Structure formats: C-alpha cells, structure tokens
Amino acid sequence: MRVLVAEDDSRISGDLGHALSAAGFRVEHVDNGEDAWFRGGTERYDLIVLDLGLPRMDGLSVLKRWRREGCDCPVLILTARGAWAERVEGIDAGADDYLPKPFRMEELVARVRALIRRAGGYSTPQQTIGRLGLDLNRMTVDVDGIPVALTPLEFRLIAYLALHRDRVVPPTELLEHLYGDNDAREANALEAVITRIRRKLGPGMIATRRGFGYGLDATG
C-alpha cells in the first residue's frame, strides 16, 4: 500500500518512513504544504499522514483544498499535543483520524492500518476471501489454512487486490502502489511478480481481464 507522509521535521519524517516501510507500506515524503496539496490531489495514495504545521501552506488549508477538490483519500493528521482546537477543526474539515505529538510509532502504524482497512471495507486485520486467508497486521497469507511464503512485494500485491476486491485493478495502478520512484515500473516486471504469486497460491487465485487488469478470485 502507498502512503504519503507530509512532514517538515526531517527526524520525524525519517522515523515515520522507517516504521511504515517496516510495516509493509510504500512510503513517499514531502516537506511543505504546496507539494503535499499537489501530490495528494494528483496521485493515488492509500493514506496520507499530514502534519498541520507545514510551511508554504498549512496542513489544514491543504486538507480543506483536497476535500473541496474531491480527494477522498484517508487522512491522518498530526498536531501539537495541546492544539485541541486544531484537532477539532481538522476532523470537521474531513480528516479521518488525528494523533497528537509526541507519539509512539507503534500507535501511528496501528492507526494507519486501521484506516486503510476501513477504507477497504475490513473491520479486522484477519480476513478470509474464499480459500485465501489474509492477516494485514502480520503480513501473512494462507490457502486452505496452509501458510504461503511470500516476499514483501508479493504480499503488498495480494493485500492491495484484497482491499480492492470489488473491482478490476489496472496494471498502472498496481505499479504505482508496488514500486518506489527509483524501482522498475514496467508492465513485464508486474507480470513476473504475478506469475510467481500464481505458482505459490495455485491456479485461478488471481484473475486477469485482458485490457483491463487484475482481480482476486479465491473461490476456485
């Protein structure tokens, strides 16, 4: 899953990047409000972590512009501990959750996971989709109760398809959410990952609609 971190404190931003990457997320950073507004409004993310005290455009203004412009991505705002009025205004402006500074990274990761689960229609980390079992917290997958060994990249692909199980996901969208800016993002690289996953899960688990994309079909 792809997360944008909008935070101007380089130490906090670095810590967030390490914690979220270790939890299986693909993380991108911006350090000012103008870049946050542009990236959040023009690219597809699964969640945005937004500091309200950003330079060049404050986080609350960024959030209000996103919601006016139709950006419905889940947003977790970061605020100073005593700024309760900002937290209320942020929630009223369309934020999905908030976390006061200082905070524990474990709590932030848990909140990020919960927001992404809810956006995908999941109420708990453990899900069963046909023969497929998925644990979004432990980053594990099983088929008919038998664990399947996956790389982090392979797990991210399955988890993304599971979170968007009600539609066909285009290859370009999968590439954006699987690979970093400096990684290979060609369609043949994506097909190679899907081929490996199909060998591990068994036939029929990932369906292909030629010209449209991929979907999870774990009922066979």
From TrEMBL:
The keyword Nuclease does not apply. Transmembrane segments: none annotated. SMART domains: REC, Trans_reg_C. Residues 124-218 form the OmpR/PhoB-type domain. Residues 2-116 form the Response regulatory domain. GO terms for biological process: regulation of DNA-templated transcription. GO terms for cellular component: cytosol; protein-DNA complex. SUPFAM superfamilies: CheY-like (SSF52172). Residues 124-218 bind DNA. Keywords: DNA-binding, Phosphoprotein, Transcription, Transcription regulation, Two-component regulatory system. The modification 4-aspartylphosphate is found at D51. The keyword Hydrolase does not apply. GO terms for molecular function: phosphorelay response regulator activity; transcription cis-regulatory region binding. PANTHER family: REGULATOR OF RPOS, RESPONSE REGULATOR PROTEIN CARR. This is DNA-binding response regulator, OmpR family, contains REC and winged-helix (WHTH) domain. The lineage of its organism: Bacteria, Pseudomonadati, Pseudomonadota, Alphaproteobacteria, Rhodobacterales.
